[in-house]
Amino acid sequence: MSQIFLVMLGGGIGAVLRSVVTNFFNNKNDSALPIATPVVNILGSFLIGLLMGLALNISWINTFLIVGVLGGLTTFSTLSSELVQMLTTNKHVFHFIVYSILQYVVSFVACLLGYFMV
Membrane-spanning residues where (predicted)? Predict the structure, then answer.
């Protein structure tokens, strides 16, 4: 039961952080590509890799930070909806390709980099 509470608490914190980042970048961004989603996904991936690299065997920290906070911060569903919108509404195939590569490859590399930094 305590692990569910930690995920809920961390997820709430991560979701609020994502909202703050999204609002910040929505006010600053004039480009065709959404910026907030890659920022939270790449940063979150890096931090997850870093925590994995530290090999913290304290289960409540992993539950709270990785599953909760960083799970709430990063967002696969928003990424998916943005990609669908690029193909269906905006008809921007080039943006779809660039955005997909940016999200998946750079997030993976960020996670790997975080893992090997420690």
Answer: 35-56, 63-81, 93-116
